[in-house]
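A quick aside before the break. I want you to see a complete sequence-to-structure record at least once, exactly as it would be stored in a machine-readable document. Don't worry about memorizing anything.
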Amino acid sequence: MSKTYEQLRADIVAAVKARDSVTALALRTADAAIQRAAMDQNKPIDEALVVASLRKGVKTLAEAKADFEKGGRTDLATANANEIKLLEKYLPQGLDEAKLAAIVDTVIRETGATSRKEMGKVMGALKKHPDAGLIDFGAVSKLLQAKLP
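That is the input. The structure line, written in tokens, reads:
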């Protein structure tokens, strides 16, 4: 069982005892997404599954927040921002820009990529990198577009 998942479950209990329904609901929703992912993939709940599920949840919330802001619903955008902050504390700290750029440069050299047509090859290699769990692939995509002609 994942340490992060155990902490999430303990925090759900603490939120329920503290009668913090907003936090409890957000954490229960994340817990349900993790359990659903484990069932869908027929895998036990491990650290990689927990991090991937939480990242997906944060991404979904961020997209919804942007839509709420466009629609002028600042109340819902604020609620999503708070939920994102809550979930991000369970995610490992990402790589800083300099280290990410160094990893991307190394992988570009290793794969021999010379154009944007080869971005998929570089992304595939990055997904196998030891630090793949810490890599923000959205940022990598932008970096690759800037570095590859």
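Two observations worth writing down. The chain has a mean pLDDT of 83. The domain at 97-147 is CATH 1.10.10 (Arc Repressor Mutant, subunit A). We'll return to this after the break.
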